[in-house]
Amino acid sequence: MIHAQPSRTALRVALRRASHQLFDAEPLVFRDPLAVKILPAGQWEELSRTPKSRKRPFSAALRAWMVTRARFAEDTLAARHEQGSVLQGPASQGLAAQYLVLGAGLDTFAYRNPYSDVQVFEVDHPATQAWKQECLANADITIPPSMHFVPVDFERDSLVDQLTAAGFRWDTPTVIAWLGVVPYLTSEAFRTTMRALAQCAPGTELVFDYAWPRHLLNEDEQRQRDSISERVAQVGEPFQLFFSEQELANEVAACGWKLCEALGSSDLNARYLSDRSDDLVLRGDSARLARVEHA
Question: pTM to 2 decimals?
Answer without folding.
Answer: 0.91
